[in-house]
């Protein structure tokens, strides 16, 4: 299905007026950072100073400057043209909307937290006004749009919720408060109100979509300028430097407001840079210099503990553990198409195996294996469990694997709890877990000590972070190399069509078992490091769903959110899924609720994940595409027999 | 082994509970080939629906009057939830790749749990469910809790009703036809959408009965009760042959018996003295599942389980 | 072309029953080296079931299938490894892999590189991979798809998808190629091209067994044709034998006297 497109403004404004308005808005947003936003230092970050931007104000600077830069770039300003190869004004609109989002969020949270708009200083007003002006101006620029987007109306019956919500509210208040059922009714009416709000918002979204009709116009891209290859390599390194700085900034945010503002900014800026074509250019460059890209990525990741303190190194280590395990799961789910719902148990098996042979005083096995041996033990034991679980189930339909692994995850936890000396033999010390796992000491390098590396003090978590990064590198290497080999092709073939794959001589069962065992093995390796990082392994670290990652549901979500079958997807997904609960503590009560709802919605609207694999995306949207002409048995038989 | 009759009775009662829940898995699977992970949570919301009805009744209402009302409320809540889930979460994915509905089911399962956890008053920990008052019955060496009477009566009634529905009514026969061959059933003029909704609804109604039985047995309901119950019921469905409704009940009874016997006797086996008792019953149920998949993956009453080539 | 050596494929008395239903009843068939054999029959005659018996999807209730003198193993991947490759009636490509990758998957049984080799990437790995690619590109050139090597299989037009299925099957270096309705849904020009392709495959020393509805295609192509009706082989022979057989005519037309229908096999000249 081809959609027709046009390039027209949403708001009819003279071209110069629109450009001026956008530019002024962006400038105002950036400039507001130099002013005071509020009068009291009660708001986190203390936004009261003139001339010295902090926290949210830096986000405003970034948003304003980026909007301005993209505006100038699309106008064709010499020296900036590289930033917008597509010359699409949509990029400017996205950036301006990002600026407005940061502004609106800052102003709203200041006025709600401090109680009223009166708490805004002039800087706050400039910020809000600038944000609005910028978006209004950008809507007046000629934008890439589809010529026609039909207005989608939700199922009419859903609108019954709108009158039902107030009725429910009245009913809940009519019940005397001392009745035991009263709180139930209050909760029900609350749920009704939320549902009604969601319906309203969704319908408004559809309305906006049909009015804005934003789309993508294919226009010939100017050929990238010929650069010497060392410049291109430098560009890659610079891009990774910027990316690494952005991620470090996110991990370092120390209050929820800043983190939300940061997320808003990042989301819109990624959209803007994708729209401007800059990300596409960068991607082409990284594909051209694959080894350099990989090296730059790891150098950027390894530089993290040198940029930040011990507190954030601990967060980063845990992110890395989570991300590595998610990438291991992606071999199983993304490449071979097997749904493993108990994957965290394999991490647990590795961690317990390492803890048992670590020489911890609580371990009944009083041996202390060197770390390399512990890694091998952890990987091997995990793999054995993978084979034991996989062998009976992988011969059957995929759904069986899903539920058997779900069961295995739960049974693993229960078993670890039971092996406590009372209800079973004492192996794991029950729910207290195995504490006091000794610090690692590899070749005389004591991980518990602070070491000076290149003049910078790297503490305990920094050390473990660097060790974990090696494991991550191992998993990335395995994923990339095996994924693009005879074995990886066979996995993808099985995922696509198992019957056809078998007809090509692929032993489906054996290869699925290989994928499953390899996934288990890699999780086991990550587990051996995790045991040392956390000092203690307990059964409750390895659950199906829990507020804290890593757990099986979050691992799967990281893979799905990021994109199945890719390397960067699960890494990005895991980072987000780890940081969101960590930074937004006020969400903690509803976090899993939102998580569950998000999974349902995601499967409905974007089943291929946020960073889709080119292939995977096609596969998931199969139903949208016209089917190839079917070889209809009956009709061809009749028409051809006598042809 | 003098307590064998007691263990057998315990196993059968527990098994009937599993069987009732397993029906829901098996009916949905039989028709749309989807393992509805959220079915355990359908049980759970049914339990809370019944609890709400109990709380709404004036204090001191006799349980004989309250129980039918609780049952109706539970069935209502379960069925509505299941039908809504089918309509809004599963149906749009009917032609999607096979991972998508499974992931939706997990999302739904977490969502329902957390909905009750966050918004049902005092549901952060288990809530007290009424029990049928009175002393346990004794039949020779077997004692049966009064609360279990509900299950002992309800489970066979449900099975009889289901058997009658499937074999004697138009809709029931249409359902069987759809599970045999959905495409042909459609060509024969059967509204398969309606049949699928019906399968979800019947499964949910049985789930609500199971939830009330569970509440009466254990004297409490909690937001997490569906997880293990769902896993066990799925095991029962596989054991009996997934897709076969009688198999589900049979599998449930077999699983219940196996669990009771493992709990009671496994510690008497040589070398196994530390692996008996209630703490290990879930583990043994899981081991049984693995063994069944290894030895007879089609289950007791099932046909060959294989992808249609 | 006549067979003088022992047959490549030797099917003796294969019977396949499902419960009470006999789908294939005592069918024997041989395919010699370098032969193109056709298998026709009305819908539901058991052609596909017979095919499935040859490809390891089903184990025949009675009878045996021998390839180069050894009984075929009952697993599809082992059959392919033994040297029999197949295509599918309803195209089953790996739609989201590229054309080249599809053919590389076909090389699976003829390459040995395992997981450690893939991780370590020793010279031997690069060598094997390069060899596979070379072979795959040769096959793509042979089927006329070389210029589309980097396209996704799903984006190919219908006729090229059929060709790709054949290239993918040939990648396993088969001695016998089973084609399941290779011209279904094709127009006459494409059918003509398919004929040329099958001849070219035979000239490379691969025997072909083809199921078809299109009689003209079959008779142009095949050295011998067997007719399957209601699970039984009613006749086998050259074009004239089959075309003049009363049972074939009645099987296709219901009754011999109603041959006024334009779809009569006689009209295929």
From TrEMBL, chain A:
<feature type="transmembrane region" description="Helical">
    <location>
        <begin position="341"/>
        <end position="359"/>
    </location>
</feature>
<protein>
    <submittedName>
        <fullName>Branched-chain amino acid ABC transporter permease</fullName>
    </submittedName>
</protein>
<feature type="transmembrane region" description="Helical">
    <location>
        <begin position="158"/>
        <end position="175"/>
    </location>
</feature>
<feature type="transmembrane region" description="Helical">
    <location>
        <begin position="259"/>
        <end position="280"/>
    </location>
</feature>
<feature type="transmembrane region" description="Helical">
    <location>
        <begin position="12"/>
        <end position="35"/>
    </location>
</feature>
<feature type="transmembrane region" description="Helical">
    <location>
        <begin position="92"/>
        <end position="111"/>
    </location>
</feature>
<feature type="transmembrane region" description="Helical">
    <location>
        <begin position="187"/>
        <end position="208"/>
    </location>
</feature>
<feature type="transmembrane region" description="Helical">
    <location>
        <begin position="55"/>
        <end position="80"/>
    </location>
</feature>
<keyword id="KW-1133">Transmembrane helix</keyword>
<keyword id="KW-1003">Cell membrane</keyword>
<feature type="transmembrane region" description="Helical">
    <location>
        <begin position="553"/>
        <end position="580"/>
    </location>
</feature>
<dbReference type="GO" id="GO:0005886">
    <property type="term" value="C:plasma membrane"/>
</dbReference>
<feature type="transmembrane region" description="Helical">
    <location>
        <begin position="464"/>
        <end position="482"/>
    </location>
</feature>
<feature type="transmembrane region" description="Helical">
    <location>
        <begin position="229"/>
        <end position="247"/>
    </location>
</feature>
<dbReference type="Pfam" id="PF02653">
    <property type="entry name" value="BPD_transp_2"/>
</dbReference>
UniProtKB/TrEMBL annotation, chain B:
<feature type="transmembrane region" description="Helical">
    <location>
        <begin position="274"/>
        <end position="295"/>
    </location>
</feature>
<dbReference type="Pfam" id="PF02653">
    <property type="entry name" value="BPD_transp_2"/>
</dbReference>
<keyword id="KW-0812">Transmembrane</keyword>
<dbReference type="InterPro" id="IPR052157">
    <property type="entry name" value="BCAA_transport_permease"/>
</dbReference>
<dbReference type="InterPro" id="IPR001851">
    <property type="entry name" value="ABC_transp_permease"/>
</dbReference>
<feature type="transmembrane region" description="Helical">
    <location>
        <begin position="63"/>
        <end position="85"/>
    </location>
</feature>
<protein>
    <submittedName>
        <fullName>ABC transporter permease</fullName>
    </submittedName>
</protein>
<feature type="transmembrane region" description="Helical">
    <location>
        <begin position="195"/>
        <end position="216"/>
    </location>
</feature>
<dbReference type="GO" id="GO:0005886">
    <property type="term" value="C:plasma membrane"/>
</dbReference>
<keyword id="KW-1003">Cell membrane</keyword>
<keyword id="KW-0029">Amino-acid transport</keyword>
<feature type="transmembrane region" description="Helical">
    <location>
        <begin position="236"/>
        <end position="262"/>
    </location>
</feature>
<feature type="transmembrane region" description="Helical">
    <location>
        <begin position="12"/>
        <end position="32"/>
    </location>
</feature>
<comment type="similarity">
    <text>Belongs to the binding-protein-dependent transport system permease family. LivHM subfamily.</text>
</comment>
<keyword id="KW-1133">Transmembrane helix</keyword>
Automatic annotation (TrEMBL), chain C:
<dbReference type="GO" id="GO:0042941">
    <property type="term" value="P:D-alanine transmembrane transport"/>
</dbReference>
<dbReference type="InterPro" id="IPR051120">
    <property type="entry name" value="ABC_AA/LPS_Transport"/>
</dbReference>
<dbReference type="GO" id="GO:0016887">
    <property type="term" value="F:ATP hydrolysis activity"/>
</dbReference>
<keyword id="KW-0813">Transport</keyword>
<keyword id="KW-0067">ATP-binding</keyword>
<keyword id="KW-0547">Nucleotide-binding</keyword>
<dbReference type="GO" id="GO:0005304">
    <property type="term" value="F:L-valine transmembrane transporter activity"/>
</dbReference>
<dbReference type="InterPro" id="IPR027417">
    <property type="entry name" value="P-loop_NTPase"/>
</dbReference>
<dbReference type="Pfam" id="PF00005">
    <property type="entry name" value="ABC_tran"/>
</dbReference>
<dbReference type="Pfam" id="PF12399">
    <property type="entry name" value="BCA_ABC_TP_C"/>
</dbReference>
<dbReference type="GO" id="GO:0015808">
    <property type="term" value="P:L-alanine transport"/>
</dbReference>
<dbReference type="GO" id="GO:1903805">
    <property type="term" value="P:L-valine import across plasma membrane"/>
</dbReference>
<dbReference type="GO" id="GO:1903806">
    <property type="term" value="P:L-isoleucine import across plasma membrane"/>
</dbReference>
<dbReference type="InterPro" id="IPR032823">
    <property type="entry name" value="BCA_ABC_TP_C"/>
</dbReference>
<dbReference type="GO" id="GO:0005524">
    <property type="term" value="F:ATP binding"/>
</dbReference>
């Amino acid at each position: 299905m081809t959609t027709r497109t046009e390039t027209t403004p949403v708001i009819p404004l003279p071209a110069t007026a629109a450009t001026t308005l956008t530019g002024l808005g962006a400038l105002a947003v950036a400039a507001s950072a130099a002013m005071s936003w509020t009068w009291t230092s009660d708001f986190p970050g203390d936004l009261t100073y003139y001339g010295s931007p902090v926290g949210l104000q830096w986000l405003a600077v970034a948003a304003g400057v980026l909007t301005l830069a993209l505006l100038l770039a699309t106008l064709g300003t010499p020296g900036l043209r590289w930033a917008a190869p597509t010359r699409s004004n949509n990029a400017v609109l996205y950036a301006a909307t990002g600026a407005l989002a940061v502004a609106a969020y800052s102003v709203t949270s200041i006025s709600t937290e401090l109680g009223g708009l009166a708490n805004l200083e002039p800087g706050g007003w400039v910020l809000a006004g600038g944000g609005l002006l910028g978006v209004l101006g950008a809507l007046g620029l000629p934008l890439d749009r589809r010529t026609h987007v039909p207005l989608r109306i939700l199922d009419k019956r859903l609108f019954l919720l709108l009158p039902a919500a107030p009725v429910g509210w009245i009913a809940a208040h009519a019940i005397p408060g001392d009745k035991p059922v009263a709180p139930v009714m209050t909760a029900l009416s609350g749920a009704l109100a939320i549902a009604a709000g969601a319906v309203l918002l969704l319908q408004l979204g559809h309305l906006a979509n049909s009015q804005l009709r934003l789309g993508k116009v294919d226009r010939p891209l100017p050929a990238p300028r010929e650069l010497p290859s060392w410049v291109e390599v430098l560009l890659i390194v610079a891009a990774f430097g910027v990316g690494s700085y952005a991620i470090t900034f996110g991990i370092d945010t120390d209050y929820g407001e800043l983190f939300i503002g940061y997320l808003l900014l990042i989301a819109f800026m990624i959209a803007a840079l994708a729209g401007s074509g800059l990300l596409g250019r960068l991607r082409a460059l990284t594909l051209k210099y694959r080894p350099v890209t990989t090296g730059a990525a790891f150098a950027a990741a390894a530089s993290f503990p040198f940029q930040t303190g011990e507190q954030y190194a601990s967060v980063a280590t845990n992110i890395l553990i989570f991300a590595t395990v998610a990438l291991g799961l992606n071999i199983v789910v993304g490449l071979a198409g097997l749904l493993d719902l108990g994957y965290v148990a394999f991490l647990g098996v590795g961690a317990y195996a390492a803890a048992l042979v670590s020489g911890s005083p609580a371990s009944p096995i009083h041996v202390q294996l060197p770390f390399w041996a512990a890694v091998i033990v952890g990987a091997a034991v995990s793999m054995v469990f993978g084979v034991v679980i996989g062998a009976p189930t992988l011969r059957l339909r995929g759904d069986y694997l899903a539920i058997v692994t779900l069961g295995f995850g739960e049974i693993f936890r229960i078993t670890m709890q039971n092996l406590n000396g009372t209800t079973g033999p004492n192996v794991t010390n029950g729910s207290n877990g195995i504490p006091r796992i000794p610090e690692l000491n590899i070749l005389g390098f004591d991980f518990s000590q602070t070491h000076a590396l290149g003049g910078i003090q790297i503490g305990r978590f920094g050390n473990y972070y660097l060790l974990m990064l090696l494991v991550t590198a191992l998993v990335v290497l395995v994923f990339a190399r095996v994924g693009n080999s005879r074995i990886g092709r066979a996995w993808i073939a099985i995922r696509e069509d198992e019957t056809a794959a078998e007809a090509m001589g692929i032993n489906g069962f054996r290869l699925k078992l290989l994928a499953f065992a390899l996934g288990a093995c890699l999780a086991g390796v990550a587990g051996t490091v995790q045991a040392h990082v956390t000092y203690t392994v307990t059964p409750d670290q390895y659950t199906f769903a829990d507020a804290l990652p890593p757990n099986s549901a979050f691992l799967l979500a990281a893979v799905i959110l990021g994109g199945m079958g890719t390397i960067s997807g699960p890494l990005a997904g895991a980072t987000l899924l780890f940081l969101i609960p960590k930074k937004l503590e006020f969400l903690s009560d509803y976090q899993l609720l939102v998580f569950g709802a998000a999974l349902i919605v995601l499967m409905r609207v974007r089943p291929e994940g946020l960073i889709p694999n080119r292939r995977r995306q096609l596969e998931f949207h199969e139903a949208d595409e016209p089917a190839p002409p079917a070889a209809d048995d009956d009709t061809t038989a009749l028409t051809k027999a006598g042809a | 082994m003098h307590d064998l009759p007691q263990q057998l009775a315990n196993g059968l009662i527990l098994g009937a509970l599993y069987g009732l829940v397993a029906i829901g898995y098996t009916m949905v699977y039989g028709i749309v080939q989807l393992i509805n992970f959220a079915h355990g949570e359908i049980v759970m919301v049914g339990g809370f629906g019944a609890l709400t009805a109990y709380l709404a009744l004036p204090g001191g209402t006799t349980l004989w009057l309250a129980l039918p009302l609780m049952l109706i409320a539970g069935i209502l809540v379960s069925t509505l939830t299941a039908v809504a889930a089918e309509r809004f979460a599963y149906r749009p994915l009917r032609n999607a790749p096979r991972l998508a509905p499974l992931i939706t089911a997990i999302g739904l399962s977490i969502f329902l749990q957390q909905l009750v956890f966050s918004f049902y008053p005092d549901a952060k920990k288990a809530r007290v469910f009424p029990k049928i008052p009175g002393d346990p019955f004794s039949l020779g060496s077997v004692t049966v809790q009064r609360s279990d009477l509900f299950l002992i009566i309800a489970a066979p009634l449900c099975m009889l009703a289901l058997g009658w529905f499937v074999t004697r009514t138009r809709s029931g026969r249409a359902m069987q036809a759809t599970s045999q061959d959905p495409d042909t059933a459609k060509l024969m003029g059967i509204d398969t959408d309606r049949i699928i909704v019906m399968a979800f609804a019947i499964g949910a109604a049985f789930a609500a009965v199971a939830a009330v039985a569970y509440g009466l047995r254990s004297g409490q309901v909690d937001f997490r009760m569906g997880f293990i119950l769902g896993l066990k019921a799925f095991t029962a469905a596989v054991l009996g042959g997934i897709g076969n409704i009688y198999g589900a009940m049979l599998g449930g009874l077999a699983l219940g018996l196996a669990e009771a016997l493992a709990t009671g006797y496994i510690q008497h086996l040589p070398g196994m003295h530390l692996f008996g008792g209630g703490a290990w019953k879930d583990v043994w149920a899981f081991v049984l599942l693995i063994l069944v998949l290894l030895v007879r993956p089609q289950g007791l009453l099932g046909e060959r389980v294989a992808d249609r080539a | 072309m006549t067979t003088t050596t022992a047959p490549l494929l030797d099917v003796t008395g294969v019977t396949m029953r499902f419960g009470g239903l006999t789908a294939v009843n005592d069918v024997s068939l041989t395919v010699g080296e370098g032969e193109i054999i056709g298998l026709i029959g009305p819908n539901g005659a058991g052609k596909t079931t017979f095919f499935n018996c040859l490809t390891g999807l089903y184990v025949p209730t009675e009878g045996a299938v021998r390839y180069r003198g050894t009984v075929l193993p009952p697993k599809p991947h082992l059959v392919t490894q033994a040297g029999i490759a197949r295509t599918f009636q309803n195209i089953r490509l790996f739609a989201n892999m590229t054309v080249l990758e599809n053919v590389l998957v076909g090389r699976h049984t003829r390459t040995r590189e395992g997981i450690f080799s893939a991780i370590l990437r020793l010279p031997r790995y690069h060598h094997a991979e390069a060899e596979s690619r070379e072979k795959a590109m040769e096959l793509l050139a042979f089927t006329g798809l070389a210029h589309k090597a980097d396209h996704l299989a799903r984006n190919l037009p219908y006729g090229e998808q059929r060709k790709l299925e054949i290239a993918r099957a040939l990648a396993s270096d088969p001695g016998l190629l089973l084609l399941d309705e290779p011209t279904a849904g094709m127009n006459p020009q494409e059918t003509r091209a398919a004929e040329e392709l099958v001849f070219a495959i035979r000239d490379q020393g691969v025997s072909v067994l083809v199921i078809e509805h299109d009689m003209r295609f079959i008779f142009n192509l095949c050295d011998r044709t067997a007719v399957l009706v209601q699970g039984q082989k009613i006749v086998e022979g050259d074009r004239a034998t089959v075309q003049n057989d009363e049972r074939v005519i009645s099987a296709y037309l219901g009754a011999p006297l109603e041959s006024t229908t334009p779809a009569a096999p006689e009209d295929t000249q």
